[in-house]
C-alpha cells in the first residue's frame, strides 16, 4: 500500500484555517471525522495528541506527519492540509511547518501504516515538489500533483 | 504434457488481497501439483527510513516491528491452515529487509517459476517513489507474475474445491 492508495480529495484541506499546532491537529481530525463519522472524533484526537506528547511529528523541510494507530478506524486514512502561512509545530529542525499529513491507522494494520508513512516521506523529499505543493490552491490541485 | 509451473511463491502482507491471492495459489497448486511457498517480509527498510526521517521514535519502531512480526506469524499460519484444508502443503518463509528485494532473492535462490500477488495499486502515479511494494515486486520479479484481483470468483473457486481435512481425501 502507498499514500496514493488512500489519497482522497475529500480529505484534503487547502488552505488550513488555524495557525497553532493543536488547532491544526484538531482541524485535520475534523476533516476526517466529517467524512468518516464524528462518533470517533475524540478517540482519534486523543490518540494523535498522545503520540505528539512523546515527541513532535514536525519534521524538517516544513513537513509535519502527525500520526497514530487506533481502533477507531477500520482502514488507513490520510488527511492532507496545507497552511497558507508557516506554523510553529515544534519541528525537529526548529523551522516552521506548512504541509501536514495526518495518518490514522487501525491497530491491526501495522504494515500498511508504515508503508503509507514511508511513501509520504519519499514523496515530499523533493524540494521542487514541495514548491509545487506550496503553490497548490485547491484539493484538486493537490490530487493532481501527487497523481501526476 | 508437463505442467507449466512447479514452484509457486505467494506474497503475504496482511491485506485481504494477499489472502485472496493465497487462496488462488492453493487452488492452482492443487490442480498443477505444484509446490507452494508463502512469504511475508517484515519491511525493516521502511521502519529504518521512518526512524532516520525522525517520523518514528525508537519506541515506535520497536512496537511496530513487534506488531508486524506478530502479523507475519499469524498470516503465515492462516495460509498454512487454508492449504491443509485443501490438501496442499504450504511452506512458509518469514524474512525481513526491503520487500521487493527479499522476494526477488527468494525467487532466484529457490527457482520459483510463478509469483502470485494480491491486487496492485488502483491509482497510478508516474513517480517512482509512490510505487507500492506490490507494484515493485511485479516490475522486478525475474519470473512470470500472476496478479489476483480481489473478487468473489476466487473465493467460490476455493470454497467449491473439496476439503481434505473433512475426510474428502
Strand content of chain A: 15-25%
Which ranges of chain A are low-confidence, i.e. pLDDT below 50, for 5 or more consecutive residues?
Answer: none
Distance between the termini of chain A: 18 Å
Element-by-element helix/strand order of chain A: HEHHEEEEHHH
CATH topology of chain A: Mannitol-specific EII, Chain A
Integer count of domains of chain B: 1
Mean pLDDT of chain A: 93
Number of helices of chain B: 7
Tell me what you see in this structure.
The complex is a heterodimer of chains A (148) and B (169). By secondary structure, chain A is α/β, with parallel strands linked by helices. Chain A has a single domain (3-147), classed as Mannitol-specific EII, Chain A, CATH 3.40.930.10. Helices cover 45% and strands 18% of the residues of chain A. Chain A is built from six helices and five strands, in the order αβααββββααα. Chain A has helices at 3-6, 21-36, 41-54, 110-123, 127-135, 139-147; strands at 12-13, 63-64, 67-69, 77-87, 97-105. In chain A, strands 1, 2, 3, 4 and 5 form a five-stranded mixed beta sheet that branches. The mean pLDDT of chain A is 93. Chain B is α/β, with parallel strands linked by helices. Chain B has a single domain (7-155), classed as 3-Layer(aba) Sandwich (Rossmann fold), CATH 3.40.50.620. Chain B has seven helices and five strands; from the N terminus they run βαβααβαβαβαα. Chain B has helices at 16-32, 44-52, 58-85, 99-109, 133-140, 152-160, 164-168; strands spanning 7-12, 35-42, 90-96, 114-117, 145-147. Chain B has a five-stranded parallel beta sheet, with helices on both faces. In chain B, α1 (16-32) runs parallel beside α3 (58-85), α1 (16-32) crosses α6 and α4 runs parallel beside α5. Chain B starts with 6 loop residues before the first strand and ends with a helix. The model of chain B has no long low-confidence stretch (mean pLDDT 90). Chain A binds chain B through residues 1-5, 7, 54-55, 57, 59-60, 65, 67, 92, 107-115, 117-119, 121-123, 125, 146-148, and chain B through 13-15, 43, 46-47, 49-50, 53-57, 59-60, 64, 67-68, 71, 121-127, 129-133, 135.
